[in-house]
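Our collaborator T.R. sent over the components below with a one-line note: 'Predict the complex.' Nothing else. No constraints on interfaces, no templates requested, no preferences about which chain binds where. So this is a plain run: every listed entity goes in together, and whatever single assembly comes back becomes the starting point for the next discussion.
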Amino acid sequence: MGLEEINIIWLEGQDCAGDTITIKQASNPTLIDVLTGAIPGLGGLKLAYHPTLMFEWGDDATQILVDAMEGKYDPFVLILEGSIPDESKAGDGVFCVIGEHDGKLLKLSDVIDSLAQRCAAAVAIGTCAAYGGIPSGNPNPTGAQGLLDYLGKEWTGGLGLPIICIPGCPPRPDNIIQILGQAVLAARGLAPLPELDEWHRPVAFYGYTMHELCPICGFYAEGTDAHAFGDTGCLGALGCKGIITNCNNTTWADGYGGCTGTGVPCFGCTHPDFPDAPTSPFFAKAPAMPFIIENMKGMLAHAEMGFERFKPVLEALLPLVPEFIEDLDRQMEEAKDKGRKI
Amino acid sequence: MGFLDKLKGGGAKEAAAAPAAAPAAAPGPGGKREITIEPITRIEGHLGVHATLDTGAKKVTDAYAYSPMFRGFEIILVGREPSEAVMITQRACGVCPVPHGFASVNAVDQAYGVTPPPMGVVLRDFVHGAEQLYDSEVGVLNLEGPDYSEVAVKKFNPDWWGEAQNTKAERSDVHGFATVADIMTALNPLAGELYLRSLLVQKAGHNMAAIFGGKHPHVHSFVPGGIAKINLSASDIESYLTLLMRHVAFTKELVTATDDLLNFVLAQGYEDVGARDINLLAVGSYNDPEAYSADYEGMTELGRKRMVSPGVMLNGEVVTTDLVEINAGVREFIGRGWYSSDWAQEIETDPAGNKIEYEHPWNKRTLPEPGEYGKWGSKYTWVTSPRWKNWKGDGKNNVLELGPLARMWVTAKVGLVPESTGSSLKFELPAAVIPGFKFADKMEFEWKIPAKPNTVERVRARAYYNAYSAYCVTSLVMKALELMKAGKTQVWTPYEKPKEGIGFGAVEAMRGSCLHWCVMKDGVISNYQYHAPSTWNASGRDPEEQPGAYEQALIQSPITEAGDPAAWKGVDIVRTIRSFDPCLGCAVAVHIGDKVVKHELLPFATPE
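Returned assembly:
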């Protein structure tokens, strides 16, 4: 398929439009930069369908979806925002309809089934779309699922790529736009494919925990804990889940914000199990095991780091050791001579 | 057979249903026509309206609003820590999360009995105000604006275009557009100057929220007893103020351009489009940090000291400005919602001793009962039907409209703030010299109470609310600096969480108001109910067959769309729906005459 022109079909399922609101905050590049073709290599992208931004409505809008199912928008990238309910649990009713065409309902799940058969790639934006998120929270009243479970981890699109997940509630603005951008560059042979982890997250953005990247992690290292909101210190005792959450929200957008740096404990909103355990209760301490492992690893590593740091000193002292022992022996002899015990 | 074949009527079952459901059917008997609009785009979420059009008289004669999406937040909340509701309910809406967080944390403050320190309150308001600024800009210029853009006008109201080209824009000294047609061109999606600049300026609102919220949407810093912000310094407030001044500069262009555009639209026969009676509800915003209290009865004073006033207006008259009375009058009917109303009355009175009825959200439970789609005579939506009972008056259940028009109207009318004149709101924004913005001087604003609520006035009020929010937040910045000078920098009050508690919190969101109710037993949520900003407006019929606010605004609304009625796209209908700035998963289906749109659920498609 020719990739000079790539259409984007953006569906909203059981969503809140929070990811759409977020992508409008991106700076590097901005959404306008991308859609107006201002970035070399990223030109030719067309937002063919997006319920919150598009001009068309009603049948003019659903016609685009129907045409996309027929291949008139090939090649296209399918983007999902929000989770997918299990309509079999809705009895005679429906949990998520995204439109009506010729008097017939377009159920989200049916549209995804159809578009997933011919899309070039599929991207799940936000924790709901990726793993189910809030609607799938216990007791999951609608049987909500993310795209990864819905289509399966083995699913691949027309370009041979698996589903790309960009979790977060919502994800950082630049994460969304940069991951989408890299996927397009990769599809055009201009950049390497993004490396994905077992949860289909791009490693470059989700390879570390919030705890590892935390702007105030120094307080943890020195053992200063905050026990009241507003107090400066590690937020672990206030419920921070940074140690179990892969996220890079050191700052939110344009250098402003960032959860822990602002003083807000991480509630694990990028975590596949959000909003249930182990991220919930949000204000309860994170599971102990990661801390125990980290502390053990830390003690050994600190010893090694200390050795590395003081190695020159130790090495300078080492040749002096025989001399020092000789000196001790001499002192011992002298003491014996004086009839004193050491 | 795949889903697409079924969609195209390939199956016998579907083929039979197709003719009756054709969206562009020829005019029916009596000059009536059937039209289906779903989805309504440029709103948040999934909503629908099903209406009847009289093509001869060019008006809508009947309408049903519905939402076809359900997630079950209130069910997911049961059994959790009340403080988790503050984080989870925000996620109901990514467009206006903060009012959910704000109303929720108010309700939980009450349930826990913890009053935040003044700085905690003012910083929460900073985050809230930041959101109102971005939200109103996006609403007016990116979601509603395209309906009045050159593209839309040339397509749907071509006779307006020539006149717009010849209509001088009165405030071109501020916004720089010579004619009304130039403003319309500036609203073209992804191309017009105002459309694109709005996308750039609105970012500053999110940035402001992130300074004290960590991120936006879905801020994590609202905690019972205050706000989670460390290392608070004057430089944080200075960063906030710097970004605020971009909105101060932009709102001068936004308000004057909107005024010029809407005055023109009004003159094209738009006076009655989307009109309804003056039945309004506001709960107020922007707190006096010293007056905030977690005491239920303290809400009366808290509300009256807000810079946006609470109040109920029935037929143009103010009935109450007391948040306690407002709460006691709320009734939530299942109406035509796909729910069961089979719950027990657990709460008899509020903490002030007022009677709490069976249908009050403190008693109401969320019991979903999915039903068949498109049954306009019975259940047809996932939205319930909140109504306000005039419990100190005639006892009638009233359909109220919420949103910027309602709150500007109430604030201007009740006279609780110095900016209110009884018939208008007057305020001044300071000078802001920022490169890239067209008008640097200070500017006086006056929003005048209009003749009636209608489509144009809802959009205009949203633009003015952007300016009024900038004004309110500017004064809160000064308040925060005063608190800082006085050493009152504490942001959180420690508390002992009780086992039992009850709370109500309410604050304005851009497109309506957030009202949250929390009942805590054994330290966890036993019942949590919330009204999203659009719940009241988007509600369907109630047990007395009173239509909801969207429905009322559409019924009897004139149609100005040009061309053959068989090809109408329903632009006046979507303009009216979007004037409410809906915030839910929605779609609009319009039903004409005696023909009933037949909705048929498509079977689950199995890939071939």
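Summary for T.R.: Chain A touches chain B through 102 residues (CB under 8 Å).
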